[in-house]
Design goal:
By secondary structure, the chain is of the alpha+beta class. Helix content is about 35%, strand content about 15%. A hairpin with a 3-residue loop joins strand 1 and strand 2 (about 45-50). Helix 4 (about 75-95) packs across helix 6.
């Protein structure tokens, strides 16, 4: 078995064990860039995933720490869906993917990394973005740094 060192992930791993909610921490942060927050609305916010499945992987979450969609008020749910739409349009404009995987993992058993704070994943996809690396080596190649992508998205987010 080959080993790929990814020491930057240790912060994520240890943070999860302490029970810190990354969404609540990001929402309360005064430094949007450090928190990778793209946009805030009255009830929701969007942020780049620090450990993306693909370039441009963004999560959209309500500001309140709620475990599922049905626990949100109608204004919160509406705001969340509108921000999902706005964020998808932003990604289409800036990085021009061929399509998207958009979804939720509700509850720990479904694979939710933070089951207490519902969030929607937007994963941009391009034709041919699935290649031999994940299949043969269990390694995913991300084509752009978070900092570079963040700057490009923020430039067009207003």
């Amino acid at each position: 078995m080959k080993t790929i060192w990814a020491p930057w992930r240790s912060k994520f791993i240890y943070q999860r064990k302490r029970g810190t909610c990354i969404f609540c921490k990001a929402r309360l942060s005064r430094n949007m860039k450090k928190s990778l927050i793209i946009k805030k609305t009255e009830h929701s916010f969007s942020m780049l995933n620090m450990y993306p499945y693909n370039n441009g992987h963004i999560m959209v979450a309500p500001k309140r720490h709620k475990p599922s969609l049905e626990t949100l008020s109608l204004p919160e749910l509406t705001d969340l869906m509108l921000l999902l739409n706005t964020t998808t349009k932003l990604l289409s404009k800036v990085i021009k993917p061929d399509g998207y995987n958009i979804g939720l993992n509700i509850g720990k058993i479904s694979g939710a990394g933070f089951p207490g704070h519902v969030h929607i994943h937007i994963v941009p996809r391009w034709e041919g973005d699935t290649n031999f690396m994940p299949v043969l080596t269990d390694v995913k190649v991300i084509s752009e740094s978070l900092g570079s992508l963040y700057e490009r998205l923020i430039k067009h987010a207003s």
